[in-house]
Amino acid sequence: MNSTEIHESFIQLQTWLSGEVIGQPVLIQRLLIALLADGHLLVEGVPGVAKTRAINSLAKGISGNFHRIQFTPDLLPSDVTGSDVYHPEDGSFSFSAGPIFHNLVLADEINRAPAKVQSALLEAMAERQISVGLKTYPLPDIFMVMATQNPLEQEGTYPLPEAQLDRFLMKVRVGYPDVAAEREILKLARAEAGNKQRAVPQPMSDDDLLQARAAVLAVHMADPIEEYIVQLTMATREPQHYSEELAGWIEVGVSPRASIALDRCSRALAWLNRRDYVTPDDVQQVIFDVYRHRLILTFEAEANGINADAVIEQLLEQVPVA
Question: 3-176, which class in CATH?
């Protein structure tokens, strides 16, 4: 495919996904942005709002293989990575790959697994490889983890450490669909119960996806927009230069990974919107998902009901567009 055909294929994929996952346009868009930006997604939402369906449908649209891992307190690292299998007949070992060796992996309720399991997933996300014994095994070129968290039930969960949260490109909050979407969901469920499946578009190959990523990296970002991203990041580290209120809310600012993620996500959003250049609006649309899981707020902010989104809103008001 040429660049125009690849772009049109992505738009068709987005349209098809919108019909498969009704009422969640932000989740669909963020999934595609994460795929284009070669990153991972953390999704927080109540059960039943089509989180699993979204990534499963995406796998069908890109000819990728998909696997769901249900994270539980008794899960072992080898249940994710795989393990060496002993063959008693000749005393040899062979590696049996685990579910992490898929293109798209759903880590369902990731915060229900203990730290050892999360550390195994961290290596896969950060290094695109896993280690078993003395050997290291590379993961597929097209590899994305979508992890989910239930915001309601926190008993018996293991909060993700900051180092692991930072590895997620974005954290997306998924809410309920509106009234019109709820009606469409009922129609879709009845149609599927009657085996009336919607036609799947021509799946995109790995080469097509790699070309799309190259096209996203080629999207023009003017120096003032790049400076805007840098200043937004610096404002989280030195909030006292902008207002005492911000300084009282932010304990720890975002890392350089946040700047990289904001750059890549802004380019991907511009490309999806049929533009070959980034605007300040692109940055402002994705910054909440890029920053909200990376900011560490003060006790005073949390005690007063100030969340990360409120802090980001203040950042956008305080930091001028370059």
Answer: alpha beta
